């Protein structure tokens, strides 16, 4: 599909631009810690036995999120990682030989009522085609068990320096999942230009100036 090829090209461009760049380690640690605390609470509230949870990540990359979900007790044999890019899929297989890696277009996945958790992180804002987004949202919903949840993390504003991404706000999320019985939102992640500058003051600034948060965590129920 044309949009799939555009996304591939966009990710390749980002990878090339990132060569030689060192992201602020303190900022990344703060961002990850903040969202993982919320993920943990969400999963504990929704699932008693995490060792029985079936989990899939859409756009798993090289597995940056996998270890966290494993740490919650989700078993490797119950973890699926869907990844568009061949190079990343190969790295996933090498790093996590016991999880199931599915390579290719997520719209071609064939898992009906299979997963307790369908997770996406920073995928939808890389999709510019509205029809593609709607189809992927429907695909994710179809993969859920009746009592399952879609766990969402993405930014809600456009990035003026990057035309390859487009923010997805609360209203658009509601439109993407029109049949959801419940959607809960959490505003998270201090705006990166600020978060990188405040260093160890991240938590303080983030707590006292919540209007500076640029991302959403959403819990979407069928």
Keywords:
222 residues, alpha/beta, Rossmann fold, 7-stranded mixed beta sheet, 8 helices, 23% strand
Give a summary of the structure in a few sentences.
The protein is of the alpha/beta class and 222 residues long. Helix content is 41%, strand content 23%. A seven-stranded mixed β-sheet has the order 3-2-1-4-5-7-6.
The value of Rg in angstroms is: 17 Å
Count of DSSP H/I helices: 8
CATH class: Alpha Beta
Mean pLDDT: 92
Query: How are the strands of the largest sheet arranged?
Result: 3-2-1-4-5-7-6
Largest sheet: 7 strands, mixed
| Secondary structure: number of strands | 7
Task: Kindly describe this structure.
The chain is α/β, with parallel strands linked by helices and 222 residues long. It has one domain: Vaccinia Virus protein VP39 (Rossmann fold). It contains 8 helices and 7 strands. The protein has a 7-stranded mixed β-sheet. The radius of gyration is 17 Å and the shape is globular. The model has no long low-confidence stretch (mean pLDDT 92).
């Amino acid at each position: 599909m044309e949009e799939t090829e555009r996304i591939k090209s966009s990710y390749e461009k980002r990878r090339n631009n990132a060569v030689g760049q060192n992201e602020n380690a303190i900022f990344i640690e703060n961002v990850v810690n903040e969202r993982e605390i919320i993920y943990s609470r969400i999963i504990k509230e929704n699932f008693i036995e995490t060792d029985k949870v079936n989990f899939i990540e859409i756009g798993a990359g090289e597995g940056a999120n996998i270890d966290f979900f494993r740490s919650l007790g989700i078993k490797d044999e119950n973890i699926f990682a869907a990844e568009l890019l061949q190079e990343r899929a190969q790295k996933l297989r090498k790093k996590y030989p016991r999880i199931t890696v599915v390579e290719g277009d997520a719209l071609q996945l064939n898992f009906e009522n299979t997963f307790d958790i369908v997770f996406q992180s920073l995928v939808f804002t890389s999709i510019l085609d509205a029809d593609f987004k709607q189809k992927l949202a429907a695909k994710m919903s179809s993969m859920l068990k009746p009592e399952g949840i879609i766990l969402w993390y993405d930014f809600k504003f456009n990035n003026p320096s990057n035309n390859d991404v487009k923010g997805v706000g609360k209203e658009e999320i509601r439109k993407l999942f029109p049949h959801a019985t419940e959607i809960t939102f959490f505003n998270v992640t201090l705006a990166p230009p600020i978060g990188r500058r405040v260093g160890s003051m991240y938590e303080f600034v983030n707590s006292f100036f919540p209007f500076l948060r640029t991302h959403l965590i959403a819990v979407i129920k069928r």
